[in-house]
Write a structure and sequence with these properties.
The structure holds two protein chains of two kinds. By secondary structure, chain A is mainly beta. Chain A is 0% helix and 50% strand. Chain A has no helices and eleven strands. Chain B is an all-beta fold. In chain B, 0% of the residues lie in helices and 53% in strands. Chain B has no helices and eleven strands. The chains are: A mainly beta, B mainly beta. Chains A and B meet through strand 4 and strand 5 of A and strand 10 of B.
Chain lengths: 113, 111
């Protein structure tokens, strides 16, 4: 089944404890991206990647890192999480880029205490 | 001014009615436009792309007005299953692969 998977789906952590949210797609998509969704602010793009080893900042990259070492995986890293990073996170992928249909993962609900 | 603006609603509409949403965007060089649908606590899914000439998919019609910088979504003969949040999405210039989402318009269809 063609899909985007994210893990974990739910995470409660404490300030400053490094964490990684994984994202994987099995559709051989070139483009992958991360978003956070907050009430009243909608979905905001954190980082995106056009291909392996190519990543670019979205609208809200501060406090986040990403890597794209393999085409299928695009992990989101929070080196030192803070409470303002409490949010619902979505990973998405598309065949070629921003103008293609975006396929979203099921979301990761992160709470930073 | 926000890059992409939508009326958050909620829109409470009786079943069978026609409902329309607008979305305005600020970057006149924007190239691609989409409507996504998001059910409560679920991931967004593409509803339809919006083409310059307008396009229709069953009960759904999308229009683009470049001069006034807005896109619209019309839903005819609304069904209970249409209840969701509708997200307007804009892609910037060619060569810039950033996507900007509106905050969404919440629609509830009432039996």
């Amino acid at each position: 089944e063609a899909q985007v998977t994210q893990n974990p789906r739910y995470l409660i952590t404490v300030t400053g404890k490094k964490l990684t949210v994984t994202c994987s797609q099995n559709m051989n998509h070139e483009y992958m991206s991360w978003y956070r969704q907050d009430p009243g602010l909608g979905l905001r793009q954190i980082y995106y990647s056009m291909n392996v080893e190519v990543t670019d900042k979205g609208d809200v990259p501060e406090g986040y890192k990403v890597s794209r070492k393999e085409k299928r995986n695009f992990p989101l890293i929070l080196e030192s999480p803070s409470p303002n990073q409490t949010s619902l996170y979505f990973c998405a992928s598309s065949l070629l880029g921003a103008t293609d249909t975006q396929y979203f993962g099921p979301g990761t609900r992160l709470t930073v205490l | 001014r926000k890059e992409v603006e939508q009326d958050p609603g909620p829109f409470n509409v009786p079943e069978g009615a026609t409902v329309a949403f607008n979305c305005t965007y600020s970057n006149s060089a924007s190239q691609s436009f989409f409507w996504y649908r998001q059910d409560c606590r679920k991931e967004p899914k593409l509803l339809m792309s919006v083409y310059s000439s307008g396009n229709e998919d069953g009960r759904f019609t999308a229009q683009l007005n470049r001069a006034s910088q807005y896109i619209s979504l019309l839903i005819r003969d609304s069904k209970l299953s249409d209840s969701a949040t509708y997200l307007c999405v804009v892609s910037a210039n060619f060569g810039n692969e950033k996507l900007t989402f509106g905050t969404g318009t919440r629609l509830t269809i009432i039996p």
